Amino acid sequence: MTMSRTDSSTTPTVVMPLSCAxxxxxxxxxxxxxxxxxxxxxxxxxxxxxxxxxxxxxxxxAYDIRDPDVYEILTLNSAEYPLSExxxxxxxxxxxxxxxxxxxxxxxxLVINHLHCVASYQLQEVRNDxxxxxxxxxLNRHRRLYWNFVCRYPSHIRxxxxxxxxxxxxxxxxxxxxxxxxxxxxVPFSKTECEDLRGVLNExxxxxxxxxxxxxxxxxxxxxxxxxxxxAEYHGLYTESTAxxxxxxxxxxxxxxxxxxxxxxxxxxxxxxxxxxFFGIPKTYVAYLRQSLKYNGRLDNMRQNWGDYISRLVRExxxxxxxATVLLSSVPSLLCxxxxxxxxxxxxQYHFLRSRVLLQDAKWQQQCRSSPR
Length: 373
Description:
Keywords: Membrane, Transmembrane, Transmembrane helix. The chain crosses the membrane at residues 265-288, 320-341. By secondary structure, this protein is of the alpha+beta class. The protein has helices at 68-80, 136-152, 163-181, 191-204, 213-232, 240-251, 257-260, 267-277, 281-292, 299-329, 331-335, 342-370, and strands at residues 13-14, 23-24, 31-32, 41-44, 50-54, 59-61, 90-93, 110-113, 118-120. Helices cover 50% and strands 8% of the residues. Strands 1-4-5-6-7-8-9 form a 7-stranded mixed β-sheet. Strand 2 (23-24) and strand 3 (31-32) form a beta hairpin.
């Protein structure tokens, strides 16, 4: 794989002549006149910002080398770096500062290997002869650094050959996981999002997008998210049983002792109120509330569970409140009748007792309906 683009007409790259017009930087108030050094090329990101590269030195930087102080620091940094050890299809993202007295260490310079699509802050880790010896988990982390670099600096290289196949493979698995696991899926994209991304990915293979810088940035962003998700899932480290155990522990963390074991002084009173006065119904709905607030890797599933919880709460309590309202509304009318009539007294006591029994029965039915299935 070559680092340079084959079609220069589609590359937003500007080679600035030394006789360029004077520019005034609104951010720093400096005059940017004739400040593009020799052999350096200015590139434009699809977002609009600039960065610079020097193919002869194999250096890429986001620092403004039109500023003499920045260029001086960058020159000192590059002089200390072993640029001669960079192999073919490799380059280094060189760091620099506006403060001339501050020099960056070698560990802060990112080395990029475009042949294997890996990057690292250690040159020895991305040499061509050690890539095949790297374990899958570490290799995925190197790939994440690489795609993050390409997402930020997509204009001076052509789209890597493996970008579309890798993106298609990851997208196919995400779609499959959504079909198999449904709402329990934790992949970063939902089924609908996978379908939309599939359409965009198919457009990337068209001839008119062959030299698109935005295409390179999009694929780099997507593959960076893929590598980040794989890193969080310990890609290539554990067997299926061990991975499932770790996933179960993350989904069911140990509860806080303060929440599970209240103070021994108030615990009897709390249990009395919950179990006697409210017939244990709060415990049931607390369990539903915890289930609804559980995060399984995707916010839309959590939002749907919360909506289902609210709908269930409104639906089940509506019948309970209707019965309680009808029964209690007839009690004041009997209380207004004179207490000197024995028959009325007996009827009032019977109606009050009947109301209490029916109200208690309604509460027990509500508890049975709301118990977890």
